[in-house]
Each structure stands twice: as C-alpha cells, then as structure tokens.
Amino acid sequence: MAFSFLGLFSSDIAIDLGTANTLVYVKGKGILVREPSVVAISKHDRKVMAIGYEAREMVGKTHSDIETIRPMRDGVIDDDEIAEEMIREFIRKVQRNRLMRPRVIVCVPSGVTKSEKRIISDSAEHAGAREVFLIAEPMAAALGVGLPVDQPVGSMVIDIGGGTTEIAVISLSGIVADTSIRTGGDKMDEDIIQYMRRSYNLLIGDRTAEEIKCTIGSATPLKERLTMIAKGRDLIQGIPKAVEINSDEIREALAEPISAIVEAVRHSLEETPPELAADIRDRGIILTGGGALMKGLDKRLRDETSLPVSTAEDPLTCVVRGTGLVLDDMERWSKVLLRK
Questions:
Q1: Residues spanned by the domain of 276
Q2: Mind listing the pLDDT tens digit for each residue in 115-137?
Q3: pTM
Q4: 10 Å Cβ neighbour count for 330?
Q5: Are strands 66-69 and 39-42 parallel, antiparallel or unpaired?
C-alpha cells in the first residue's frame, strides 16, 4: 500500500544516458527529454553554465573561460561530477513533485563493469533518485522494438550508439550471447576528421564531421554519388577554407569503424547456440540506435551475414521506450534488470 501511495506523488523515470544524447521517459507521460549529453562549465569554478541543446550550441565556439564537456564516454560516465549535474537537471525538468524522489531505471552497455555500474547508480542517487535500477542497452532496445524477449525464442539486436555498439542474442529474459565494442558514432566522426586532415589539410570540428556523416556517409556504394561542401580551417595557411567532398570518399573514411561493427556481429553469431542461431536465421537481425540510420548499413550486414537485417522504426528512441516499458510494469519485467 505504501508503494502505491508513493507512486501517486512521484514520477518514476527511465533514462537512456547516452554518450551523444540523453532521453528521459516518465511513467504515464512518455518521452519528455531528448537532449545532447553536453554540459558547458565555467573553467575557474566548474559552475554549470548550460546543459543539453544550449551547451551543444557552444561546442567549438567558447572563449577561454568556458569549457564544453561530454560527461559520458563509451557509454559510461567519464566525469562523475558533471554527469551528476546533467542527470539532476534532466530529472528536475520532468519532476512534477520535488518532494518525492523518483525511482529511476538507467540504461548501461552490456559490457559495463561493476565499478562502472556503481558510478552510474551513485550519480543517479546523488542527482535525486530514490532507488536506481540498471538495464542493459540491447535488452532495452529489444523491448522497445517489441521483440518477445521473455519467450524461448532467439532475438538478435544491434544497438549502435555514440560511444558503443551493443550486439546481443536474447532469450527467456536474458542475454545469451553479447558483444560490446567501443566503436560507434563518435569513432566515425573522429575518422572523418582525420580523413579531412590527411586528404585536404582541412581541420574540421566535431559538429561538421557529424553533419558529413549524416548527410553523405554510407556503408555501401550508393546508386548516386552524393556531394557536399565541408568548411573548416586550412592547416597550412591557417585561413578559412571550403572543399567539395563526395560520398565515395566518406565511405572510405568510415571503412574501419564499419568493418569493426561487421566483425563484432560475426563474432556474436559464432557465440550463439545452434537452436537460437536457427531462430535468428528465420527472424533476422534488428538495428537500433543512431548508427542504424547510416545509409546502406543494413545492406552491408545482409551481404556479410546472409541473414535478414532490418532497421527499427524510430531507432533513436528504441532503448528509452524499452526501458519505459519495464518502468510501467516492473513486476513483469524484473528479470531483465541487471544485478549491481
């Protein structure tokens, strides 16, 4: 009775605490926060100046007194203090009753260590959570897609985020085989930056690299070659410079991280028990996360594995929607939560 009484006043929360973006689902209300995982701070006293979209607008444009920080790296907390401030702000945005501390479920990479689990739990508690639960990202993604994770059927999901790619085979509310690699959207951006430096002596920023990736990046040759103008600073003359680049070049720049994802998928399939492998052959593989939007990635994986591969509807929200499903019915889905 006490539990339901508390539920009347507190808004329980599910958080997809991503390297690139943070999404917050509130029980009974849906997704209320969808913002970049970026914090701008004052360098001399580390006071928070801006969080989310406002901080992202400052990236690459700050003066010497302001620093922009991404407190998440490779899917886990890299800066405890700043991450705590960010989580607190996002919880504050969605809380209807500040007197009651919410229960919070946080998504974590499947390869998370015990110490990383503790850091995430502690940060959420210090930020205002009454109780903290953890769920593996691929499990949450599978729930968000609507896969029958609690049935004796093999389901395979590939969640490609900013810092990690999570590949998991799921059956009977557990992860049977999983591969977690620290390659994702950020690594792709870094490789584009390095390619532009090598090929054009052009220094570009993270946001420009991301724009290039999303606009003309691909995992397979496109039917029609795409082009765009990339702007940055000439490394030799030190002046602003613009060059035209095409999708063939960027596919070459992305070859390494794409190949790493393909190899990780192969490894996960090799680790899958035969009966579940047969299910995956029939049911196929589902792509989720921001990286699932990479042009031609589903085709590349189909070609490399000879299995059906499809991209989830609204892949960016699959993880938080799945976590929200657990939040809405904790009794049914308690088995999918991780032990701390």
A1: 153-183+256-314
A2: 999 999 999 999 989 999 999 99
A3: 0.89
A4: 15
A5: antiparallel
